[in-house]
Amino acid sequence: MGAREQFYADIMATHPEVTGSCHLVVVKFPDDTTTRFIVDCGMFQEAKYNDAEEGHDYNKDFPFNAEEIEFCLVTHVHVDHVGRLPLLVKQGFRGKIYSTAGTKVLSNPAILDSAKVIRNTAKRKHVKPLYMETDAELALSLFTPCQYKETIKVSKRIKATFFKNGHLPGAACILVQISYPGQNSINLLFTGDYNNKNMFLDIPEQLPSWVRSLPLTVIQESTYGTTDSTSNGKCFEDNMIRCLKHGGTAVDMVFSLGRAQEILYVLKTMQNSGKLDTGIPIAFDGNLAHYYTRLYQNADELNIKSGMRDFLPENLIFVDRTSRASILTSNEQKIIVTTAGMGSYGPAQMYIPEYITRKNCLLQFSGYTAPDTLGGKLKSTPVGKPVEIGSIIRKKEAEVAYTTEFSAHAKADEMIAFLKQFEGLKLVLVNHGETDTKTAFAEHIVEEVNPKCVGILGREYMFRVNGYGLVRQFSSKFK
Ligand SMILES: [Zn+2]
Ligand SMILES: [Zn+2]
Predict the structure, then answer these.
(1) What is the pLDDT of residues 234-266, one digit of tens each?
(2) Are 48 and 17 spatial neighbours (Cβ–Cβ below 8 Å)?
(3) How far is the CA of 257 from the centre of ligand 1 (A)?
(4) Are 150 and 136 in contact (CB under 8 A)?
(5) Distance between CA atoms of 16 and 433, rounded to whole angstroms?
(6) Which ligand has the nearest atom to the CA of 45?
(7) Fold (CATH) for 3-227+408-475
(8) Confidence (pTM)
(9) Where does residue 255 rank: exposed (0-12), middle (13-18), buried (19+ CB within 10 A)?
(10) CA of 20 to the centre of ligand 1 (A)
(11) Measured in angstroms, how far is the CA atom of residue 88 from the centroid of ligand 2?
């Protein structure tokens, strides 16, 4: 066997579809040493992958030995990318967790809140929690912050560089360069969840030329791999104006990180342009959303662009447990901005049953709503018909609206443009998409970008890659 055959990296995604993001990379060096690392360590949120009764609880274990993982790279702070870091620690991982400084700052509230939710859910179900707050604290202590564009040594022969990505403040695409004397380096670019724009951030149009010219394997997300950016109907503002014009109340369901701050800024711009009366109070509810909003205003690590720290609309009320009751019962016209984005968690669970029964009211979802969440259920219930919320049946009288205009992910055409910038593209491995979407997007890449090879990542296969691209693909066997 030549040295070329003895130097390779095996890559797999332990997540079949969109949530539970975690890539395993096993590097084999010619001197017979092996380095294992992971990129992201997320929680499965799709019901089909986290339901123990269905026999598919992927959350409780990893298809690798956590003690053998040398280090972890984190692309961004969404729970489906960092939510199982405490479990990794609980199972014996003690390496460094590399992220940007922004991701480190945002990880504190995200991971501690995740531990709290897990403890409360376990208590309700009378089962043992997946991990404890002490595991979460230990995981947080392993975070090692890096600067964008600074190449750092993460292992004896492995370097990593984080590049700005519009998905979230702190989010990164991560370049991993694995080298061995006398061998062509293996260059892997993990896109993470990717967006080419963000209203709070300055995002460079292209990666530096030294990256674009590398012989490269790109691990490409595909969440919106079958959606085009031009097909994005804007309706948020129109829906709000229509509802408020008739004296109605609008309730906007938001994700606590990213979407909440975007919606507050949109309301501010509507006030500034005279589309929204500043006399209408805006009630903002959700502890974690409040915390992230303060970080957007104050934390330098998030790199919020100049002029965007001042994004709060006039007449904004931060609602807490004690002031919530009056917001719930009053008939005064108002806007409510509340977590959680899909309606099934957070204070939205209290606002939705109350306001769904009111005729002159709009409930608006500004993000993806999974079919098994409250937001998903309301979609399929016609107006005037009963809907089950928790164990209560309510009549749906309010208008319920959905918009995808605030998506934090690039669409298919934008991802294709991203891939076209690489001059030395050897291989694209598609991941982070629903099964059919991944296949359709992989075909699209073959047609439009035409790299040497396109593969589809999942739990079934490992892809063996070296400095020349794909070596071979083989079935992954779990211990
Ligand atoms: Zn994300
Ligand atoms: Zn994701």
Answers:
(1) 899 999 999 999 899 999 999 999 999 999 999
(2) no
(3) 10
(4) no
(5) 8
(6) 2
(7) Metallo-beta-lactamase; Chain A (3.60.15)
(8) 0.93
(9) buried
(10) 11
(11) 18
How far away, in angstroms, is 432 Cα from ligand 2 center?
A: 7
Sorted by where each begins, the domain ranges of the chain are: 3-227+408-475, 233-402
Assigned fold of 233-402: Rossmann fold (3.40.50)
Selection from 372, 8, 432, 308 nearest residue 185 by Cα? 8
Asked if the domains 3-227+408-475 and 233-402 are classified in one and the same CATH topology, the answer is no
Q: What is the pLDDT of residue 40?
A: 98
pLDDT at 344: 83
pLDDT for 15 equals 85
Which ligand sits closest to the CA of 167?
1
Distance 31 CA to ligand 2 centre (A): 36
Q: How far apart are CA 100 and CA 1, in angstroms?
A: 40
Strand partners, 155: 158
- CA–centroid distance, 82 to ligand 2, in Å, is 10
Q: How far apart are the CA of 395 and the centre of ligand 1, in A? A: 34
Whole-number Å distance, alpha carbon 313 to ligand 1 midpoint, is: 26
* Closest-approaching ligand to the CA atom of 46: 2
- Quote the ligand 1 centre to 73 CA distance (angstroms): 15
Q: How many angstroms is it from 302 CA to the middle of ligand 2?
A: 19
CA distances from 306 to 59, 206, 296, 309 (A): 40, 21, 12, 7
Distance from residue 464's CA to the centre of ligand 2 (Å): 24
Q: Ligand 1 center to residue 100 CA distance, Å?
A: 15
CA of 255 to the centre of ligand 1 (A): 11
User: With contact defined as beta carbons under 8 Å apart, do 77 and 288 qualify?
Assistant: no
Note whether 3 and 183 are within 8 A (CB). Answer: yes
Low-confidence ranges of the chain (pLDDT < 70): 1-4, 52-55, 232, 478-479
pLDDT at 160: 98
Give the C-alpha separation, 470 to 448, whole Å: 20
Q: Cα(106) to centroid of ligand 2, in Å?
A: 16
pLDDT in tens, 313-335: 999 999 999 999 999 999 999 99
Q: How far apart are CA 207 and CA 421, in angstroms?
A: 8
Residue 236, Cβ density class (10 Å: 0-12 exposed, 13-18 middle, ≥19 buried): buried
